[in-house]
Amino acid sequence: MDCSQKIAIGLGIFLALIMLCGGAGFLGYIHGYQSGNEASYSQGKEEGYQAGYRAGYEAGYKPEPEPKRPTGYTLKNPSYQEMKEFLAQDLTNTKKYIQDEYVCVDFAAEVNNNAEALGFRCAIVDIFYPEGYGHTIVAFETTDRGLVFIEPQFDLEVKLVIGKSYSRINNFTPPPRDDTIKRFLIIW
Protein backbone atom coordinates (compact mmCIF):
# COMPACT_ATOMS: atom_id res chain seq x y z
CA MET A 1 0.00 0.00 0.00
CA ASP A 2 1.42 3.24 -0.92
CA CYS A 3 1.44 6.48 0.99
CA SER A 4 -1.53 8.00 -0.78
CA GLN A 5 -3.66 4.95 0.01
CA LYS A 6 -2.67 5.08 3.66
CA ILE A 7 -3.62 8.77 3.79
CA ALA A 8 -6.96 8.03 2.12
CA ILE A 9 -7.73 5.20 4.59
CA GLY A 10 -6.69 7.40 7.56
CA LEU A 11 -8.76 10.27 6.23
CA GLY A 12 -11.75 7.92 5.72
CA ILE A 13 -11.43 6.56 9.27
CA PHE A 14 -11.09 10.10 10.58
CA LEU A 15 -14.20 11.22 8.66
CA ALA A 16 -16.11 8.14 9.86
CA LEU A 17 -15.17 8.94 13.47
CA ILE A 18 -16.25 12.54 13.03
CA MET A 19 -19.54 11.42 11.51
CA LEU A 20 -20.05 8.83 14.24
CA CYS A 21 -19.32 11.34 17.01
CA GLY A 22 -21.39 14.03 15.32
CA GLY A 23 -24.32 11.63 14.81
CA ALA A 24 -24.10 10.43 18.42
CA GLY A 25 -23.97 14.04 19.64
CA PHE A 26 -26.92 15.00 17.46
CA LEU A 27 -28.97 12.02 18.71
CA GLY A 28 -28.04 12.91 22.31
CA TYR A 29 -29.06 16.52 21.72
CA ILE A 30 -32.44 15.47 20.27
CA HIS A 31 -33.09 13.02 23.13
CA GLY A 32 -32.06 15.59 25.78
CA TYR A 33 -34.12 18.32 24.15
CA GLN A 34 -37.24 16.17 24.07
CA SER A 35 -36.79 14.91 27.65
CA GLY A 36 -36.04 18.37 29.00
CA ASN A 37 -38.82 19.99 27.02
CA GLU A 38 -41.40 17.48 28.27
CA ALA A 39 -40.30 17.80 31.90
CA SER A 40 -40.08 21.58 31.88
CA TYR A 41 -43.32 21.93 29.89
CA SER A 42 -45.46 20.05 32.42
CA GLN A 43 -43.81 21.82 35.38
CA GLY A 44 -43.80 25.19 33.62
CA LYS A 45 -47.36 24.75 32.42
CA GLU A 46 -48.66 24.33 35.99
CA GLU A 47 -46.53 27.19 37.35
CA GLY A 48 -47.54 29.39 34.44
CA TYR A 49 -51.21 28.56 34.93
CA GLN A 50 -51.05 29.42 38.63
CA ALA A 51 -49.12 32.66 38.01
CA GLY A 52 -51.54 33.71 35.25
CA TYR A 53 -54.60 32.87 37.35
CA ARG A 54 -53.25 34.82 40.31
CA ALA A 55 -52.37 37.85 38.16
CA GLY A 56 -55.76 37.81 36.43
CA TYR A 57 -57.63 37.48 39.71
CA GLU A 58 -55.73 40.36 41.29
CA ALA A 59 -56.23 42.55 38.21
CA GLY A 60 -59.95 41.79 37.98
CA TYR A 61 -60.88 41.82 41.67
CA LYS A 62 -61.44 45.36 42.80
CA PRO A 63 -63.77 45.51 45.79
CA GLU A 64 -66.16 48.43 45.69
CA PRO A 65 -66.32 50.65 48.74
CA GLU A 66 -69.57 50.41 50.67
CA PRO A 67 -72.03 52.99 49.34
CA LYS A 68 -72.97 55.70 51.80
CA ARG A 69 -76.62 55.48 50.78
CA PRO A 70 -78.62 53.32 48.41
CA THR A 71 -78.50 54.06 44.71
CA GLY A 72 -81.26 53.80 42.11
CA TYR A 73 -80.41 50.16 41.59
CA THR A 74 -81.10 49.18 45.18
CA LEU A 75 -84.51 50.76 45.66
CA LYS A 76 -87.02 48.69 47.58
CA ASN A 77 -90.74 48.81 48.10
CA PRO A 78 -91.38 50.04 51.66
CA SER A 79 -93.82 48.56 54.10
CA TYR A 80 -96.86 50.71 54.86
CA GLN A 81 -95.28 51.68 58.19
CA GLU A 82 -91.95 52.61 56.52
CA MET A 83 -93.86 54.78 54.03
CA LYS A 84 -95.75 56.54 56.87
CA GLU A 85 -92.50 57.12 58.80
CA PHE A 86 -90.83 58.51 55.69
CA LEU A 87 -93.73 60.91 55.05
CA ALA A 88 -93.69 62.03 58.70
CA GLN A 89 -90.02 63.03 58.52
CA ASP A 90 -90.17 64.45 54.96
CA LEU A 91 -90.77 68.22 55.01
CA THR A 92 -92.00 68.68 51.44
CA ASN A 93 -95.59 69.11 52.65
CA THR A 94 -94.53 72.16 54.72
CA LYS A 95 -93.69 74.15 51.58
CA LYS A 96 -96.13 76.65 50.12
CA TYR A 97 -97.96 76.16 46.83
CA ILE A 98 -97.00 79.12 44.60
CA GLN A 99 -98.88 79.42 41.29
CA ASP A 100 -96.56 79.04 38.26
CA GLU A 101 -93.54 78.61 40.58
CA TYR A 102 -93.92 75.67 43.00
CA VAL A 103 -96.93 73.57 42.04
CA CYS A 104 -98.22 70.01 42.41
CA VAL A 105 -95.61 68.49 40.10
CA ASP A 106 -92.83 70.12 42.17
CA PHE A 107 -94.25 68.64 45.38
CA ALA A 108 -94.45 65.20 43.76
CA ALA A 109 -90.93 65.40 42.31
CA GLU A 110 -89.44 66.43 45.65
CA VAL A 111 -91.17 63.63 47.59
CA ASN A 112 -90.09 61.16 44.89
CA ASN A 113 -86.45 62.29 45.05
CA ASN A 114 -86.39 62.27 48.85
CA ALA A 115 -87.89 58.75 48.99
CA GLU A 116 -85.40 57.41 46.46
CA ALA A 117 -82.51 59.05 48.33
CA LEU A 118 -83.49 56.87 51.31
CA GLY A 119 -83.76 53.76 49.12
CA PHE A 120 -87.56 53.66 48.75
CA ARG A 121 -89.21 53.13 45.39
CA CYS A 122 -91.70 55.93 44.70
CA ALA A 123 -93.76 56.69 41.59
CA ILE A 124 -94.94 59.95 40.08
CA VAL A 125 -98.65 59.76 39.20
CA ASP A 126 -100.07 62.11 36.55
CA ILE A 127 -103.85 62.54 36.77
CA PHE A 128 -105.67 63.80 33.66
CA TYR A 129 -108.84 65.95 33.93
CA PRO A 130 -111.13 67.20 31.15
CA GLU A 131 -110.12 70.20 29.06
CA GLY A 132 -106.38 69.44 29.34
CA TYR A 133 -106.03 70.09 33.07
CA GLY A 134 -104.47 67.69 35.52
CA HIS A 135 -102.75 67.06 38.82
CA THR A 136 -99.65 65.18 40.01
CA ILE A 137 -99.29 63.01 43.12
CA VAL A 138 -97.03 60.11 44.19
CA ALA A 139 -97.52 56.41 44.89
CA PHE A 140 -95.74 53.69 46.84
CA GLU A 141 -96.07 49.97 46.19
CA THR A 142 -96.07 48.90 49.84
CA THR A 143 -95.07 45.36 50.71
CA ASP A 144 -98.06 44.78 52.99
CA ARG A 145 -100.90 46.96 51.63
CA GLY A 146 -100.14 47.18 47.91
CA LEU A 147 -100.33 50.37 45.86
CA VAL A 148 -100.95 53.48 47.97
CA PHE A 149 -101.54 56.93 46.43
CA ILE A 150 -100.33 59.96 48.40
CA GLU A 151 -101.18 63.64 47.97
CA PRO A 152 -97.66 65.11 48.51
CA GLN A 153 -98.91 68.60 49.39
CA PHE A 154 -100.58 67.24 52.55
CA ASP A 155 -99.06 63.74 53.03
CA LEU A 156 -102.56 62.29 52.81
CA GLU A 157 -103.54 58.92 51.41
CA VAL A 158 -105.93 59.44 48.47
CA LYS A 159 -108.11 57.40 46.14
CA LEU A 160 -108.20 57.55 42.36
CA VAL A 161 -111.40 56.47 40.61
CA ILE A 162 -111.75 57.07 36.88
CA GLY A 163 -114.93 59.01 36.14
CA LYS A 164 -115.11 60.51 39.66
CA SER A 165 -114.10 63.95 40.96
CA TYR A 166 -110.67 63.82 42.62
CA SER A 167 -111.68 66.44 45.19
CA ARG A 168 -115.01 64.81 46.06
CA ILE A 169 -113.76 61.24 46.56
CA ASN A 170 -110.94 62.57 48.78
CA ASN A 171 -112.98 65.23 50.67
CA PHE A 172 -110.96 68.19 49.36
CA THR A 173 -112.31 71.64 48.49
CA PRO A 174 -113.36 71.47 44.82
CA PRO A 175 -111.20 73.49 42.41
CA PRO A 176 -112.71 76.12 40.09
CA ARG A 177 -112.67 73.67 37.16
CA ASP A 178 -113.81 70.11 36.53
CA ASP A 179 -111.51 67.60 38.27
CA THR A 180 -113.16 64.42 37.05
CA ILE A 181 -110.43 61.81 36.58
CA LYS A 182 -110.29 60.81 32.90
CA ARG A 183 -107.21 58.64 33.37
CA PHE A 184 -103.98 58.48 35.34
CA LEU A 185 -100.44 57.43 34.53
CA ILE A 186 -98.06 55.84 37.07
CA ILE A 187 -94.40 56.52 36.26
CA TRP A 188 -91.82 54.48 38.19
Please give the domain count: 2
Tally of strands: 5
Level-1 CATH class name of the largest domain = Alpha Beta
Helix/strand class:
alpha+beta
Low-confidence stretches: none
Total helical elements:
4
Radius of gyration: 43 Å
Strand content: 15-25%
CATH architectural name of the largest domain: 2-Layer Sandwich
What percent of residues adopt helix (DSSP H or I)?
40-55%
Helices and strands, in order, run as: HHHEEEEHE
Largest sheet: number of strands, sense, barrel closure: 5 strands, antiparallel
Oligomer: single chain
What is the general shape? rod-shaped
**CATH topology type of the largest domain:** Beta Polymerase, domain 2
Strand order of the largest sheet: 4-3-2-1-5
Give the overall average pLDDT: 86
Straight-line distance between termini: 113 Å
